[in-house]
Fold each of these.
Amino acid sequence: MRPSISIEFEPVIGLEVHLQLNTKTKIFCGCANTFGREPNSHTCPVCLGLPGTLPVLNKKALEYAIKIALALHCEVNPLIKFDRKNYYYPDLPKGYQISQYDLPIAQHGLLVISSGGQAKKIRIRRGHLEEDAGKLIHDDSLGCSLVDYNRTGTPLMEIVTEPDLHSSQEAYDYLHILKLTLQYLDVSDCDMEKGSLRCDANVSLREKGSTTLGTKTELKNMNSFKAVKTALDFEIRRHQEVLQNGERVVQETRLWNETKGTTFSMRSKEEAHDYRYFPEPDLVPFVVDKKMIDAARQTLPEMPDVKLQRLIRDYQIPDYDAGILIQDPALADFFEQCAKANKGIESKKICNWIQGALLQELNARKKSVTTISLTVQNFTDLILKVENGALSNLAGKDVLKYIIDSGKSVDAVIQEKGLAQVSDDQTLDGIVENVIKENEKVVQQVKEGKASAIGFLVGQAMKKTEGKANPKKIGDLFRRRLLNE
Ligand code: ADP
Ligand code: MG
Ligand code: ZN
């Protein structure tokens, strides 16, 4: 056995994402771009690859690709062309896939990820347009495979990173922010389970500090972001063992097996395809003029990576909180309006109320902040009332429910429901006295030094007032009576 060497390794990861664009029609023909329909019901001579047919580029697909390019801070190539990538497989009726080889629509971009509270730039190598293949259905009961050509010709954008990711978590974070970006653009439903977003992961290891790349393996067949992360974790460990045993990693494509939790070899470099790319003679090169690019730029909202960094910077809120807000641009907007309402509420407090109580109410109603009648004024009033002690935290959450449903003002709801916090000393002291009488055992424990038992007593007092007492005051009163504080 070879002696094992202990070397510190750094993982190097590059991701290739295939995104189905949600255009109405396919990329080179007029067939509807659909999912889950009767097999082979949405096909025509063009997408079936019959001889004598000619492809015509879908303008919308090109527009979407430009939007994606801009959102990923890419250079948009002024001249693009399409190429044939040749291989034979039953799901590819033409025997070649129309793709882009040396003049892709997008190049040299970047996406800022937020990993462990740290902003990090991941370079985008390229983004290109291509057509999807059909779908093979393996039917054991029939003892054969069937092919559905509905998917053939679905517009795809392939987005390739530089090998800039250095852990499975960073890969996960990249995918997350990329998906959000694409959702902001509304160019795809980004559903990995439906296959509208697919990700291949390339990974290698190198000695820490080294700048040369190690031999990589390419992982396929992951159908969730979580699976990408676990597959990478598995593969990183496997590379590590191989290298530590003084052996070499074999460059190959490996498939992830979700049930076994392992990767296994699909094909090695020797068997790798030689696609013999050549220019697609049936499509002329396209000039992407400034007008098209400007028009696409006009439609772009602020992108989530930019929004994230801005929220952290402008409102001094934690990375985690900003990360929740950007999941829903309308919610982030609502937060900003509340923070700007300038009522002296800390931004972080507003975040807490949004992430906790508000999101809970929204989820329960399956609604968005734009489809309920909650105003910035009302929401900030509510937070302020709880902050000032006029409402208990619990009553505050109740009030939120009512103001969401009725659209009434916070004051009106407090009056109507009798939810104002009880803060006057005499009333509270009376309640405290009663609780002390009724809980001799716990009182004894408190006196013997178990200060945490006060929490129980406070809880009892809150119950008596149906949550309307000011818990801080109640706690003080118990401490004064029992501990002479
Ligand atoms: P291939 O020709 O095998 O498709 P590419 O050079 O096109 O490889 O790169 C595909 C992806 O793999 C890119 O995201 C790239 O960043 C990444 N990649 C390339 N080399 C390595 C490596 N040695 N380790 C990790 N990732 C790599
Ligand atoms: Mg590749
Ligand atoms: Zn068609």
Amino acid sequence: MTNPPTPARLVVLISGAGSTMSAVLDAQQDASYGARVVAVISDRADAAGLVAAAEWGVPTSVVALADFPDREAWDRALADEVARHEPDLVLLAGFMRLIGAPSLARFGGRIVNTHPALLPSYPGAHGVRDALVGGAKVTGCTVMLVDEGVDTGPIIAQAAVEVWDDDTESTLHERIKNVERGLVTVTVGRMAREGWTVEGRRVTVGTATLKDTKGDA
Ligand code: GAR
């Protein structure tokens, strides 16, 4: 079982608006939340979430791919920057790049990502658009652990969102994000407070396992 100290040191990686990050920062105002954001790191200097994080008084930094000779050098620099903040948990909150081997080697098993679709359906950078084009009637969001694949890590939590006939990518994504902010906030808080186990592809947050509850009915 992975059981971080409380409050868990949380490093958040963003590429954009950072509304998921802001929801976590809001939740941690309650001292019992169990996690504390110690740094926000972006691959984009123009990510609006950096301004929001600074307004919350959280240290921010930028590790931009363009500032490095190649992808491997960027991967190493990102891992170094994350490590500098000694995280117990790393949250990808709208971070639109793949996590490379250096970060997986150092923080593997405690990097959490959120994706705007019900994985394993519609992975990748356009999960909302792909669900719409694919004719899905229900989509949603997935919180998962990060592995070396594209949105292939073990699933921690999911929530469903109905697709409406008149939805556009943007109206659907906004409805998903409303649900996703709550799902991410609750899930990260529970992981920090209660720990988690991974057996094969099955993740259990807290101590209640299927084995514990079997035969209770
Ligand atoms: C969220 O919907 C998140 O799932 C998505 O970016 C949005 C971030 O919004 N991430 C991905 O698509 C990763 N594949 P935010 O910047 O307002 O938190």
